[in-house]
User: Fold this.
Amino acid sequence: MAITLVIVGNSLKINKPFLDYIDAQVSLHVKAPNKKIFLDKTDNNIFDILEKTLNESDQVLLVVSKNNYNLIGKAICTINEDVLELKDGMLLPSKVKLYKNNSYLIEYKNKQINIMEAIENKKLPHILLTCKQESSIFSLIGIDEDSTKILLSPLADTYEIKLTSSSLVDSWSIIEAKTSKYENLQNFLKAVKSLFPDKFIENENVLEHIVYSLKEANKTVSVAESCTGGQIASMITNINGSSQVFNGSVVSYSNSIKKAWLGVSDETFERYGAVSELCIREMMEGTLKTSSADFAMATSGIAGPEGGTQSKPVGTVFVGARTKSGEILVERLLLKGDRSYIQKQSCYHAIKLLLYIAKDIFFKK
Assistant:
């Protein structure tokens, strides 16, 4: 089912935070659209592009700025051989199927079209479009992508499932399962969980799964971050309910802060450096003492583009996870990419170790 997201209005296009908010809300309702395009009323061929998009897509969601909203309504009516009428204080096509708070749904050639007005710094209206194709995105932790494909293919064939997989980081595969039959999808997911009880996370948002699992177990976590600069903390606190499980974070970017706030020793810096396993161990010990959390994560590395050496090139990162009782996992990574990608990979590697170190909490049979 080809779903197209159309953002209409240059004011929306240039507003990155608001655009991220739109994308997040859309993904909650229709997963990831197959295509996203940008239009504005100043475009000379806006009508032709809009008509072509409606014809080539199975479903379309138009998110329209205030300055473009009436124009798009008129254009949609022209394409659909319809007229605008005043209904409950809103100008809507006469053939409208459903409407609510500046969002309305019409049918065009047996397909759903949802037009909604988006105003910066305001809450988006309800998305009325419903995804007709059943799909689910899940994670398998602790298994490489090639093995994932080999092991899941027979199951997918049995339940008529189309799979798309990608490696988030090493030994963490994200998989999208699609089918036209809801019952098949549910049976497939049950079979995957049965096959990989200690690796399968059904929730598309793994951070949400972590927060909910910690809450259920009445456990807490804290973080000590260096090269990731607080990104793990941000990822966790983006989740509703995280205040009940997240005790806090120390962004110990300089060695002096690692020493003063986390208790990393001078000997560790002199003999091994900040980018080392021992530094990670001491960072986690320090953050557990400070926060009294049940679990800790830590990161320290060289994200680049400068700062690397022959023994520790750019992309060298140490990540760790630890329990209050003293169980520790530390991993040395050699990551590739630009600064931002190395930082993000480091975050997910640390999160992966947290999942490993508390399997009884995060993977329930």
